[in-house]
Amino acid sequence: MSGLAFIDATRFVMVTDQGRFLSGALDLANNAPADLSGVQIDIVRNSSGNPLPNKFSSDSEAIEVVIRNGQPAAMRVGFENLSRIADFDLSGGRPFGPAREIAIPQWLTALRTNESIEAVCIAPPASPVAGSTLIIAEAHQRVSGQWAATLLGNADRGDLALQTAPGVNPTDCAFLPNGDLLVLERGLALLSFSMQIRLIPADQVRPGATMDGAVILSGSGSAVDNFEGLGVRTLPNGQTRITIVSDDNFNAFQRTLLLDFSLPD
């Protein structure tokens, strides 16, 4: 699975890099993941309502929930190769229908590679850029040592950047309820994966900024695979949970893993 977003404390939607939505519920036992239920796979469609025709157009890598009037209203999806952002209607916790393309900067549209749009997240009400969509490119630098990024918003529209970290690339992002940003990063060396999550202070997410922050989680070895999806949710008891999921790329030697963590107070 390439991207992960939570609609509420248990309902989720993921995307695969072969143009599929996977939606369902994360069943909990003592507030920890125990099983998946109600899982359904749906086809990601183009603006005409037809299935995406080929791998170049169907490489969906990132997904986020669009909130309107306090309620989940749509799913926003980021694509690599044919680089674009599109919204899809949401009903009963499942995305459906034709894509509605969202305007992005020309430099991002021009990135016709599988290292373009990898991370997409929308700022919550507590953020200084509330409601704006943050996009981080996986492996494109407009300035040396900085991963290219952009904000889509009304008052907060413009480019920014993420400071590079040794040996890893950004693969997803998610905002915490207080407006701080989490960035998931993945590395690969000698056929072994590594991962880390950086915590970016809320006031760094603004046009013209170079974002950076402390690593709050890292790992490598047998417990780590190709982690590409990051989701944040709040449990009924108020606890904030961070969930990451790996993409097996449909390879027998990789795994789809889901790891779930609590965020310390």
Describe this structure in words.
- This protein is mainly beta and 265 residues long.
- Helices cover 2% and strands 55% of the residues.
- The protein is built from one helix and 20 strands.
- The protein has one helix at 106-109, and strands at residues 3-6, 11-16, 20-29, 32-43, 60-68, 71-79, 84-91, 94-102, 117-122, 133-137, 146-152, 158-163, 169-175, 181-189, 192-200, 210-211, 214-220, 227-234, 240-246, 258-262.
- It has a five-stranded mixed sheet, with no helix packed on it.
- The model has no long low-confidence stretch (mean pLDDT 94).
Q: How is the topology of this model organized?
A:
Blueprint: E1 3-6, E2 11-16, E3 20-29, E4 32-43, E5 60-68, E6 71-79, E7 84-91, E8 94-102, H1 106-109, E9 117-122, E10 133-137, E11 146-152, E12 158-163, E13 169-175, E14 181-189, E15 192-200, E16 210-211, E17 214-220, E18 227-234, E19 240-246, E20 258-262
Parallel strand pairs: 12-16
Antiparallel strand pairs: 1-2, 2-3, 3-4, 5-6, 6-7, 7-8, 9-10, 10-11, 11-12, 13-14, 14-15, 15-17, 18-19, 19-20
